[in-house]
Amino acid sequence: MKKLFCVFLLFFSFHSNTLANGTERDVSKPEFTFNVIPSAGPEGVEFELLLMNEGDIPLKLEFPTSQLFEITVTDTSGNELYRYSKGRYFLQAFQSIKIEPKTSYKRIAVWDYTLDGKRVPAGEYNVHVTLKAVNLNEEPISIRDKLTIDKKMIIPKENPVFRHVKVEGNRGKYQIIGETKPSKGSFFYTVEDGHEEFVEEKQMDIGGETQEWKPFKIQLLIPETKLPDNGSLILFLYERNHQNKIIHSFPVILEKFYQ
Questions:
Q1: How many other C-beta atoms can be found within 10 angstroms of the C-beta atom of residue 4?
Q2: Are residues 93 and 193 in the same domain?
Q3: pLDDT tens, position by position, 74-102
Q4: What are the tens digits of pLDDT across the range 210-253?
Q5: Is 2 part of a structural domain of the chain?
Q6: Which of 110, 130, 155 is the C-terminal boundary of a domain?
Q7: 60 lies in the same domain as 129
Q8: Are residues 144 and 16 both part of a single domain?
C-alpha cells in the first residue's frame, strides 16, 4: 500500500562552516540546512519547508517583506501553473525569524492542482523554490543561487472513486469526510505508517451501486500510546476488483509525527 503514496523529496543544504586552524570548526559561524519536502497526494501537494539550525549559535534570518519564500510550478514548456505569492498580500517591511541551536522552523504551503478553477493534467512538472532571506546574523547573503531549489514532481491522475476528502482531529482521534462512488457500492480502508498497520482492513457500504457521488464519514480512534514516534500516519481508501486486487487507492495523511 505504501508504494502507492509518492513523497517527492527536495533537499538542499547551505552550510557556512569554516575551519579554525585547519582542524576545528569555528562555532561562531552560523550553520543551517534548508529542506523542502513536497508530499504529492491525490488532490493536492503539501510543500513542507524546514529551516534547521545545525550550528551552536542562534540563527537570525532577515527578509525584506513578510514573504519568507516563493514557490512556482511550471509545465515542461515553462508555463506557470502555480505561484505561492499569487493573490497573497505581504507586509512591506523587514521581517526576521530566529532559530535556536539544534532546532527548526517549519512552514507549510498547499496547492490543490488547479489553475483558474480547473485541475491541471496528470504528469511531470517543474518546481522552483526560493528562500527570500537577505541577511544571516546581520551579514548580507551574497550567494543568492544557494537559496534556490529546482526539482521535478509528478501530479497523479484524478481518482475516479474518492474526492473532497478532509481530516479533522489529532493524537489518534480522527474524523474523515469525503465523497465516493464505488463501482460495487462499497469500499475498503486501512491505516498504516509504511511499516506497521494500525487499523486492519475494514469495509464500508454506501447503500448499493451508484453513479452519483455520495458522502461518507469515517471515525477513527487509535490509542495514543500506539501512535508512531516519527513519520506519517496514513489512511488508505480503495476498492477491490473482481480478482480481489486493490484498485483506485487514495492515500490520506491523518497526522505527521516528529521526534
A1: 15
A2: no
A3: 999 999 999 999 999 999 999 999 999 99
A4: 789 999 999 999 999 999 988 899 999 999 999 999 999 999 99
A5: no
A6: 155
A7: yes
A8: yes
Residue among 186, 251, 196, 249 at smallest CA distance from 222 = 196
Q: Which DSSP symbol is given to 86?
A: T
Output helix, strand, coil percentages for the chain, rounded to the nearest 5.
5, 55, 40
The span from the CA of 84 to the CA of 111, in Å, is 8
> Is residue 1 a part of any domain in this protein?
no
CA pair distance 170, 223, nearest whole angstrom = 11
Residues 58 and 171 in one domain: no
Which three cell numbers mark 245?
Answer: 486486487
Residue 8 has pLDDT above 60, yes or no: no
* Same domain for 247 and 121: no
Size of the chain in residues? 259
Does residue 239 form part of some domain?
Answer: yes
Confidence (pTM)? 0.82
Q: How many CB atoms lie within 10 A of CB 2?
A: 14
Residue 103 in grid coordinates: 532546532
For 237, the domain range is: 162-257
In eight-state DSSP terms, residue 26 is -
Only one residue has cell 496528470, namely: 122
